[in-house]
Amino acid sequence: MTRVLVVWCPDWPATAAGVDAATPGAAVARGRVEACTAAARAQGVRRGQRLRDAQRRCPELVVRERDTGAEGRLFEAVVAAVAELTPRVEVVRPGLCAIPARGPARFYGGEEALRVLVQDMVVEAGYDCGSGVADGLFAAELAARAGQGGVVVPEGGAAAFLAPYPLSVLDRPELADLLRRLGVATLGAFAALPSGHVAGRFGADGALAHRLARGEEPRPPAPVPGVPDLSVRADLDPPAARAEQVVFAAKRLAGELHEGLAAGGLTCVRLETSVGFADGHVLRRLWRHDGRLSALAVAERVRWQLSAWRSERPVPGTDPDGVEAPPEDEAVWGGVTWLELAPDQLVPDVGRQEGLWGGTAVTDRVARAADRVQALLGHHGITRPVLAGGRGPGERVVRVPVGDLPPAGAPDGPWPGRVGAPAPAAVPPRAASAEVVDAAGGPVVVSARCAVSAPPAALAFGGGTAAVTGWTGPWPADERWWDPARSRRLARFQVVTEDGAAYLLAVEGGRWHVEASYD
Amino acid sequence: MPEAALRGIAAGAPEGSGVPVLPALRALVPGGVLRPGSVVGLTGLGAASLGAALAAGATAPEGEDGPGGWCGVVGLPEFGVLAAAGMGAAPERLLLVDEPGDRWPDVVAALAEAVGLILLRPPERPGAAAVRRLSALARRHGCVLTLTGAFADAWPGTRLRLRLEDVAWHGLGDGHGRLRGRLADVVAEGPGPARRVRLWFPDADGAVAPAETVPALKPVGGPVSAGGPVSAGGPVHTVAGEEIA
Fold first, then answer.
1. Which UniProt keywords apply (chain A) (predicted)?
2. Pairing with B162, which of A132, A370, A412, A491 sits 20 to 30 Å away (CA)?
3. Do A381 and B100 lie within an 8 Å CB cutoff?
4. Which chain A residues touch B234 with a CB distance below 8 Å?
5. What is the DSSP letter of A506?
6. Cβ proximity of B70 and A366 under 8 Å
7. CATH code for residues A232-316+328-348
8. Are A495 and B172 an interchain contact pair (Cβ–Cβ within 8 Å)?
9. Which residues contact A249 (CB under 8 A, 6 or more apart)?
10. Domain residue ranges in chain A
11. Closest by CA position to A512, among listed A453, A454, A444, A447
12. How far is CA B161 from CA A67, A125, A456, B28, B49, in A?
């Protein structure tokens, strides 16, 4: 049984979003609380709560949008602090990293001494954390969360340590719910069930959870004898000067790696990414893989690694060694000369299949073309539109970068005030401001009760003026009134001008805009 | 997906034919399809709708449930995805490159290998070298280049030019009604005499239909005169005007 030390930074999404731990704050995504600080928790804010409920319980809540990119980037600082003590740090996910404890514990004088030392290193780096040592990753994570800043669970004591925990820590809500109804409330009670019966009743995933509850490694490292070297490497010549080029290469390499793994029916528990620079410097990092990372997710991790490294490179002219740092814009890291992805801990692939591209398959040729455009313009340079709910024509289209999964199907609720078909053919990303005047030349005003002061007679925008020959409206829309920062109250009009053009206008706060053109 | 199906999608259309157009526009295009590798120009009023219609024709599912082709839209951040979808486009087969900047020739070159139709608005006057390179690439890969915007006319070798004439929007009154469709002549100029069809472009559902199919639009004879019966159209509001106060 491997001894594992886990460093756990509490409420990492909130910390990474820039919320101070002492103030009540929350990181939200899609209107739900994803993480909150201890101060917010004390006031009744919970994970998964709707933002509205959270704000009711805690009116002074600081709300930030969740930023997964920043989470990965900032966590590099924590990993770097831990890596000062022992080089092999495994990032389980941003907010949680693990190191094998046996060797370092012997070196630093015992597991408790190592635990405190690691904790001090991370706290010195400026982040609150807990650290725990136990048999296996699962028990060690709970040990890091236990007590004041974590505990050491003695060897062989994982099962006893886990026994009193509720089933919710398994992070399998359906299983936990079912077991609760069967009268099994704690991990100890679950662990006491015969494993053969658990596997028969709950399948492979249930058996995995059962192994966790018994304090065993979820799946034993199963080295296959005589496995060829599956690591993949790309040499970049000339050295890549831009992160995009490296990420692009990483995406391709990850595809090759996954092909190699799939051919052997294998998956890797961890993935080591190494980036070599022209000056001989090598950046290595381990990422938890578990067969769950797509090629794009691997590329994303390489991007985090690079951007974190760039943020800590010396500012030009301030290098303590007197070596002149390269100028800001060119070859910022001296150029990347090679990139290697190496699978670590190969285990048989028991099958976890996730669609890489979402609903409609993107063909090889289209994917290759999109990759090339992304290499030129960045990941967001080429998008596929997804129709979504909304009132205005611009709101009803979401642009998803090629390769990203489209947003999970939002319910297509009723949208009172939605502009009906036919849809305008030109919807500029930013509405152009316009002037609408009545027959007397005065501005047309819409009152708070949606009364129009006078029929619009002329529309002026973009340097031209045209007489209005037909108009309709106002169609009021009062959107997101619950959120003062994003609430909009506007009234829409359709007008036809003398030159045969038709426009969708919006008046908001007394100002007119051409929201779209029925070109 | 079987290998053969993948090839079919990637090619955009079966070999030897071309990029399909909407049924209502077939009479305008020689042979009823856009010839692979040709260049189409869209100018004037209605260029955005014409672009959306061509994108719809290129990506619309073929036959029973056969997959449609792919369409790239380069340099048109205002491209009306919803309008194209209303005309029959499959949005998931559109690739949008909103801000190609000065890399637009490279973007078009990359897309030309993969998609059947590229809708392009060059952000600058295209240089002769870029025109030669992209035209050659389009011919080699059988991709139709569709030019729009201020520099649409600056592309030599344009085979077909489409524009709208004699347009009239219907459904809007003086303070009531809603836009219900536009009757327009779509004019195609190319080799041979100019062709012209009268179409609902779009009709009340956002689709493109021949002008004879009026029955679906019965309630709207033409612009409703002031003081006439108020059209029942327009968005539905669950709240009264007071809500906005």
1. DNA damage
2. A370
3. yes
4. 420, 472, 475
5. E
6. yes
7. 3.30.1490.100
8. yes
9. A234, A236, A240, A339
10. 3-159, 163-213, 232-316+328-348, 355-408, 432-517
11. A444
12. 47, 65, 35, 10, 14
Domains in chain B (CATH in brackets) are: 3-162 (3.40.50.300)
**A497 Cα to chain B: minimum distance (Å):** 10
d(Cα B147, Cα B170) in Å, to the nearest integer? 29
Helix (H) or strand (E) holding B33: strand B33-34
Distance (Å, whole) CA A372 – CA A404: 16
Question: B204, A422: Cβ pair inside 8 Å?
Answer: yes
Distance from CA of A224 to the nearest CA of B (A): 31
What interface predicted TM-score (ipTM) does this complex get?
0.80
Q: Which of B92, B176, B237, B242 to mutate to test the interface with A (most CBs of A within 10 A)?
A: B92
Q: What are phi and psi of A221, to 5 degrees?
A: -55, 125
- Smallest CA–CA distance from A503 into chain B, residue: B179
Query: In the beta sheet, which residues pair with residue A305?
Result: none
SS (H, E, C) B70-117: CEEEECCCCECHHHHHHCCCCHHHEEEECCCHHHHHHHHHHHHCCCCE
Q: Which residue has the tokens 């006319």?
A: B153
Considering only CB atoms, which chain A residues are within 8 Å of B182?
422, 502, 518
Residues of A in contact with B142 (CB under 8 A): none
Residue that the structure tokens 């194209």 belong to: B84
Residue in chain A closest to B110 (alpha carbons) equals: A369
> Consecutive sets of 10 residues in chain A, 519 residues long: mean pLDDT of each?
85 85 85 87 86 88 84 83 83 85 87 91 88 88 86 88 88 87 89 88 86 73 48 85 85 88 78 83 73 77 72 43 40 74 76 46 71 74 87 86 66 78 91 91 89 92 90 87 83 91 91 91
- Supply angle C-alpha B132, B135, B139, rounded to 5: 135
Interface of A with B in 449-488 (CB under 8 A): 449-452, 455, 469-473, 475-476, 478
